[in-house]
Specification:
Elements: E1 5-9, H1 19-23, H2 46-50, E2 56-60, H3 71-96, H4 101-124, H5 133-145, H6 151-160
Antiparallel strand pairs: 1-2
Helix pairs in contact: 3-4, 5-6
Length: 165
């Protein structure tokens, strides 16, 4: 069978009830490190359907084309993102000057939620998508500044992440 997708397990969601282990026809979901064995996985999707915790996602091997976005929309998304960065700076300042534990917890939660919003905005702007030209450019830049530690991984990513926009 030609594989056009493979299974990916979110370990944080996995409740280890092992249904995926019973349905997998090739034993790819039973691994020492908790991840799916990509070499063995044939992409049938049985584990994803069986998992009661929605911990397994089927990921396409070839990413679909990036959604086209008007430059005016991207500019607005960047503006919102810049505002969120400013908010984080203010929240961090308040956090550093707070002596109240409950207030600190709230401020930390707000910082985290702002970071998540920025991540979503960047994704919506076409950044952080594995198949985007922006990601490709970033990886090439990283390759040039890397001191050798991650060179092999970056080269592998550049090879498998086909630009599709
Ligand atoms: S079926 Fe889902 S929750 Fe159960 S072990 Fe597999 S991935 Fe984890
Ligand atoms: S997609 Fe199919 S082959 Fe791959 S891990 Fe899940 S059940 Fe096994």
């Amino acid at each position: 069978m030609e594989r056009n997708q493979h299974a990916y397990r979110n370990i944080d969601l996995c409740t280890k009830d092992c249904l995926c282990l019973f349905v997998c026809p090739v034993g790819a979901s039973d691994t020492e490190n908790g991840q799916i064995d990509f070499e063995k996985c044939i992409g049938c999707g049985a584990c994803s359907k069986a998992c009661p915790s929605h911990a397994i996602t089927m990921v396409p091997n070839k990413m679909p084309p990036q959604q086209k976005k008007d430059q005016a929309i991207i500019n607005e998304l960047f503006k919102i993102s810049d505002n969120k960065i400013e908010e984080i700076k203010i929240l961090k300042h308040l956090l550093n000057n707070s002596n109240d534990d409950n207030e600190k917890r709230l401020l930390k939660a707000l910082i985290h939620s702002n970071k998540v919003i920025i991540e979503d905005l960047m994704r919506e702007s076409g950044y952080m998508l594995p198949q985007s030209r922006n990601t490709n450019k970033l990886l090439k830049k990283l390759l040039n500044i890397d001191n050798g530690t991650n060179k092999e991984i970056i080269q592998k990513l550049l090879k498998v992440l086909e630009v599709n926009d």
